[in-house]
Amino acid sequence: MKPMGLTSTPFISYHNIKVKNVDLFEDAWGINSEFCDVIDLLRQIKAVPGRRLTKRLIEKIRKQD
């Protein structure tokens, strides 16, 4: 008879997990990377901050001195 509330979980290693035909990003976040979802997401990200943001950051850094 097993004690109440105890469960056992088998140990597996990462090598035993088969993900050859699985898109992990689509599985985790629902992003279908084969189509335009990723490109649309990347268009929302600004790689270079705006001039106003840069100026305010420089001012705050100078105030720290």
In short, what is this structure?
The protein is mostly helical and 65 residues long. The chain contains 3 helices and no strands. The chain has one domain.
Question: Could you give the distance between the termini?
Answer: 70 Å
Number of helices: 3
Mean pLDDT: 76
Which structural category fits the helices and strands?
mainly alpha
The biggest sheet, with number of strands, parallel, antiparallel or mixed sense and barrel status, is: none
| Total domain modules | 1
Describe the structure in your own words.
With 65 residues, the chain is mainly α. It has one domain. The protein has 3 helices and no strands. The longest helix is centred in the C-terminal third of the chain and has 14 residues. The relative contact order is 0.07. The model has no long low-confidence stretch (mean pLDDT 76).
Keywords:
mainly alpha; 65 residues
List strands and helices in order, with pairings:
Elements: H1 24-29, H2 37-43, H3 51-64
